[in-house]
Specification:
Mean pLDDT: 88
Number of helices: 2
Strand content: 5-15%
Structural class: alpha+beta
Low-confidence stretches: none
Bound molecules: zinc ion
Order of helices and strands: HEEEEEH
Radius of gyration: 13 Å
Strand order of the largest sheet: 3-4-5
Helix content: 10-25%
Largest sheet: 3 strands, antiparallel
Distance between the termini: 34 Å
Length: 86
């Protein structure tokens, strides 16, 4: 396995929290990559590594800080962050 369950949870949080640069597929410009998971060709964290929803691309590394924990938002916007649809 490329990542542990805890690491996948952290990666998914950090990938979708909106204040970090997203990992995206290098093939995202081919016209077949759509806007999903926060950006065009954004990668999805799994225990087998990052996967691209739109092609065969995978990636088995991530920045240490993203793996280690949920990175706090340096610019919290009251009323905008932590919104949950009911
Ligand atoms: Zn792709």
């Amino acid at each position: 396995m490329a990542f542990t369950a805890d690491q996948v949870e952290n990666l998914a949080h950090n990938q979708t929290c909106g204040h970090l640069h997203l990992f995206t597929c290098p093939n995202r410009g081919d016209g077949e990559h759509r806007d999903a998971y926060g950006d065009t060709g954004a990668l999805v964290a799994t225990v087998r590594g990052w996967i691209c929803p739109f092609c065969d691309y995978t990636q088995d590394w991530a920045h240490h800080g993203m793996l280690a924990g949920k990175v706090p938002n340096p610019f919290p916007l009251p009323g905008l962050s932590h919104q949950r649809s009911k």
